[in-house]
Amino acid sequence: MGTLGFWRLAQADPGWVAAVDPDGTQHRAGDLLARANRLVHGLRELGLRPGDGVCGLVPNGADGLVLYLAALQAGWYYTPVNWHLTGPEIAYIVSDSEAKAFFVHPRYAAEGTRGAEAIAPERRFALPEGAELPGFRPLTDLTGGQPDTLPTDRTAGLTMHYTSGTTGKPKGVRRPLSGLDPDDAAEMMTFLLGLFGITAGRPNAHLVTSPNYHTAVTQFGGTALHMGHTLVYMDKWDAEETLRLCERHRITNSHMVPTHFKRLLALPEETRRTYDLSSLKWMIHAAAPCPVPVKRAMFEWWGDCIYEYYAATEGGGTLATPEGWKSHPGTVGKAWPISELLIVDDDGKPVPTGTPGTIYMKMMGARFEYKGDPAKTEENRLQDHFTVGDVGYLDEDGYLYLCDRKSDMIISGGANIYPAEIENELMTHPKVADVAVFGIPDDEWGEQIKAVVEPAPGAEPGPELAAELLASLEGRLARMKWPKTIDFIEEMPREPNGKLLKRKLRAPYWEGRERAI
After folding, report:
1. Region Disordered: what ranges (predicted)?
2. What's 388-425 look like in SS3?
3. What are 162's strand-pairing partners?
4. Do domains 6-17+25-181 and 409-510 have the same CATH topology?
5. Radius of gyration of the chain from Cα atoms?
6. C-alpha–C-alpha distance, residues 419 and 400, integer Å
7. Confidence bin at 334 (pLDDT 50/70/90)
8. 136-160, pLDDT tens digit by residue?
9. How does the average pLDDT of the chain come out, rounded?
10. Which of 112, 142, 413, 490 has its CB 3.0 to 4.6 Å from that of 104, i.e. a possible disulfide?
11. Residue 317, Cβ neighbours under 10 Å: how many?
């Protein structure tokens, strides 16, 4: 121990450019360290103690990074809040996390102000320094006159992310604090990136392609920083801008989702050829199954730098190296050395190789609880394994293949149908920009298969396109899996991390039914 961790690295080399904001502003490690230190001194004066919580409603960039770096060296839980939420949803998280301070960026003033009603006025702060927000104290109230020096009694804090909450309210995933020195704890975190073969030191740069309130984004970006990589932030994802930033900052690693791949591949050939991507080494993706042809096309373009994993906010998971995936196309990989997989039937009994069942995972030494909900914590456990409700199977080599989320499974005429399989086939059609498949009520069959398609630019939505898409499934999917009908939508409701909001699409079809699956 003793060579990694942001705070150590920043003291050794204060001039290192540790972060680049979406507008191109560069932040040196020494300046970020000084800001984080002042924040710790100020919040301690406000009465914060190890184990307390801090919430931030901030865009991607150095401002949110400073909150993260302050909390993680003072023993606090830092919760980055989803900026798409409404005031009452924000208030719920601020209150549920028992935050002792809430930081809001003027960009989210409207909902942030409503959300701040959940916390005492003296604990609300506008970020960054110089920002003014009615009803919030200026940041200088906390940091003004505070020393830049490293705080005493430093102890490792953690992030506490709220899961999107498939049922009921979102839950904070809370782990016990380690009591370790912050740099030592950060160095232990780098094990995760080590699994992918990622190395520490410069010149390395990590591109942050999604909002910082997602677990994986914080985890991969934060860990890359602790390994001495420069973080390059995007404000809003754009395919060509991604390529431009990769070339400009010599990006070596990033974290993406399959939707990003599909949109990158949709760029004109000459645009794709314009950019020098020779710096790419570890381009990691997750969050949704990636259609085999899409991933093959990315390998052809970017070479063997594409890694995939499967995990959850609660822990995980699996890893598919380029070689592993090519020898087992469609897999999400094998269990991490510190992880175990268990596939069980509805009675909790292990199923044979090749048989789909509910996926349970276990990560050594990674206990967690859903904050304030012991019942939910236990309900998703099987001994010391947990599940997020996904369905999949293991092959004879121990490679995991995902079928779908249990809650998304369609039961038609007694047969189990996995929407992801149908989506993957439709997604490869050149006239499809995005697709979602789900079950809608059918009095005869229980459920029938509905596809909703976002047409690619230039493709004309209508009965002719629907017929063409269905015809493309001939010989590739059993007829029982074909959508009965296809609807078209201008833009698919997705979270910026690529997660599809299927509930939004499904709800209108189930109105007035007692069972909205």
Report:
1. 136-176
2. CCEEEEECCCCCEEEEEEHHHCEEECCEEECHHHHHHH
3. 172
4. no
5. 23
6. 18
7. very high
8. 999 999 999 999 999 999 999 999 9
9. 90
10. 112
11. 22
pLDDT score of 166: 42
Instruction: Evaluate whether 350 touches 344 at the Cβ level (below 8 Å).
Output: yes
Contact 124, 113 (CB under 8 A): no
With H, G, I as helix, E, B as strand and everything else as coil, classify residue 453: strand
Looking up tokens 């493309």, which residue turns up?
Answer: 472
Report the relative pairing of strands 282-285 and 306-312 from DSSP bridges. parallel
Would the pLDDT of 516 be above 50?
A: no
Q: Structure tokens of 47?
A: 């009465």
Report the CATH fold assignment for 6-17+25-181: Rossmann fold (3.40.50)
Residue 439: strand pairing partners: 449
Q: Which of 78, 41, 25 is nearest to 154 (CA)?
A: 41
Compute CA 182 distance to the chain's CA centroid, rounded to the nearest angstrom.
Answer: 23
* Residue appearing with tokens 């997989």: 341
More confident residue, 234 or 402: 234
Q: What mean pLDDT comes out for the span 203-213?
A: 94
Say which range, 430-439, 444-453, 493-502, has the weakest mean pLDDT.
Answer: 493-502
Cα torsion for 471, 474, 480, 485, to the nearest 10°?
-10
Residue 207's closest CA among 267, 250, 171? 250
Are 488 and 452 spatial neighbours (Cβ–Cβ below 8 Å)? yes
Q: What are the phi and psi torsion angles at 465 (to 5°)?
A: -65, -40
Rounded Cα distance between 183 and 8, Å, is: 7
Task: Say how far residue 266 (Cα) sits from the centre of its chain.
Answer: 23
Confidence of residue 265 (pLDDT cuts 50, 70, 90): very high
Mean pLDDT of the 453-480 span: 91
| Exposure letters 167-189 (e unless 16+ CB within 10 A, then b) | eeebbbbbeebeebbbbbbbbbb
Confidence of residue 365 (pLDDT cuts 50, 70, 90): low
Region label for 256, one of left (φ > 0), alpha (ψ between -120 and 50) or beta (otherwise): beta
> Long-range pairs for 370-379 at CB < 8 Å and ≥24 separation?
370/163, 370/171, 370/172, 370/173, 370/174, 371/96, 371/97, 371/160, 371/171, 371/172, 371/173, 371/174, 372/96, 372/171, 372/172, 373/171, 376/171
CA nearest neighbour of 306 among 348, 353, 264, 341: 264
Q: Are strands 230-233 and 205-208 parallel, antiparallel or unpaired?
A: parallel
pLDDT for 373 equals 78
Domain edges within the chain: 6-17+25-181, 409-510
The domain over range 409-510 is classified in CATH as 3.40.50.150: no
Average pLDDT over residues 358-377: 75
pTM recorded for the entire structure: 0.81
